[in-house]
Write a structure and sequence with these properties.
Cysteine_dSase; seven-stranded mixed sheet; PyrdxlP-dep_Trfase; metal-binding; Aspartate Aminotransferase, domain 1; Cysteine desulfurase; Aspartate Aminotransferase, domain 2; alpha/beta; three-stranded antiparallel sheet; metal ion binding
């Protein structure tokens, strides 16, 4: 059996979510229609919203359904900036959805303030506080709850507190973290938080921006005024139902599942470090400051892209970084932001575990990777 170890790009569909989706797809009706079929679809949609809200720790009205994590991030970054205008603060090593959205508003006049991260890709609260003190016109701060490439977890509570003290809107990109570690919108303290179904074991094509009632936000899409007038377009009740089921299951099992997945990751890490003297873990050390399923290494003298293709031929699926940069041959901006040199960064592999991972996946990785490294030495 091929080993799938790229769960950070999109994890496997949970059977419960697949069953819920199959059943919900049989329903007919636009949730905005007033006839009985439309109202039945509306009831299905709103029940899913309530379940999502309970899993995420927010009110149902705060759940704005989107087409996925990228749209949620864009609505937060572009819509949040347009609502206030001013400086946009973002750390190094953010996801491409954030950096590209930031570049888009820069073309509209936003001044981008890039904040340094530490060698584990984390933003220190004192760095943000100092930047906010220097930027009296700051409009928005955006930060990852956990880095999608190297797995380091930010302590978002103090970061959100710093933004609130400066009266600046804060967006937390929780797409990699929600469902993998305990995380609740009502405990974070930010006005905006993005989440995605496909990272939880739900279907692709649906996500959400959690937005407080008072969050300044300008819509990107215009039309029927759905989702509090902030995201027009007919929402898919079926996708929302499956998203809610996946979120409930992930959140309910987060403690036990994080321990199980971390054990698989740690076994893989020990095996790789023993077999590859030139391998080095990137990001926070295994423990509470790292996503349980995240294993990111650089291998001295190796070419990560070549290793990826050889591993794929051997039946092991991994990545070298964010799937949103797939097909783009360049050094990871995350590693560069962490201070890793270009030559070292070229030997990167991102190996990520999820709810369907097991010991056989670790066995396949450890059997394949060490023998392939000499073939890709630079």
């Amino acid at each position: 059996m091929p080993a799938y170890l790229d769960h950070a790009a999109g994890t496997t569909l949970r059977p419960s979510a697949a069953a819920a989706l199959a059943e919900a797809l049989g329903a007919v009706g636009n949730p905005s229609s007033v006839h009985r079929h439309g109202q039945a679809a509306r009831a299905m949609l709103e029940e899913a919203r309530e379940r999502l809200a309970a899993a995420a720790g927010c009110e149902p009205v705060e759940v704005l359904l989107t087409s996925g994590g990228t749209e949620a991030v864009n609505l937060a970054v572009v819509g949040g900036w347009r609502a206030r205008r001013g400086a946009l603060l973002l750390p190094g090593g953010e996801h491409a959805a954030t950096t590209e959205a930031a570049d888009a508003v820069a073309r509209e006049g936003a001044r981008l303030v890039h904040l340094p991260v530490d060698e584990e890709a984390r933003l220190e609260p004192e760095v943000l506080r100092a930047a906010l003190a220097d930027e009296p016109d700051a409009a928005l701060v955006t930060v990852l709850a956990a880095n999608n490439e190297v797995g380091s977890i930010n302590d978002v509570g103090p970061l959100a507190a710093a933004a609130r003290a400066a009266h600046v809107t804060m967006h937390v990109d929780a797409i990699a973290a929600f469902g993998a570690v305990p995380l609740r919108f009502d405990a974070v303290g930010a006005e905006l938080m993005s989440v995605s179904s496909v990272k939880l074991g739900g279907p692709a094509g649906v996500g959400a921006l959690l937005a407080s009632r008072t969050a300044p936000l300008t819509p990107l899409l215009h039309g029927g005024g759905q989702e509090r007038g902030l995201r027009s377009g007919t929402p898919s009740a079926a996708l929302a139902v499956a998203f809610a089921v996946a979120a409930e299951e992930a959140v309910a099992a987060v403690d036990a599942e994080s321990r199980r997945v971390a054990a698989l990751r740690d076994r893989a890490l020990v095996g790789l470090l023993a077999a590859l003297p030139g391998a080095r873990l990137r990001g926070a050390a295994p423990g509470p400051d790292r996503l349980p399923g995240s294993l990111h290494v650089t291998v001295d003298g190796a070419d990560g892209e070549s290793l990826l293709f050889l591993l794929d031929a051997a039946g092991v699926s991994v990545s070298t970084g964010s799937a949103c940069l797939a097909g783009v041959t360049r050094v990871s901006p995350v590693l560069l932001a962490m201070g890793v040199g270009e030559e070292e960064a070229r030997g990167a592999l991102r190996i990520t575990f999820g709810h369907s991972s097991d010991d056989a996946d670790v066995d396949a990785l450890l059997a394949a990777l060490p023998s392939l490294v000499p073939a890709v030495a630079r």
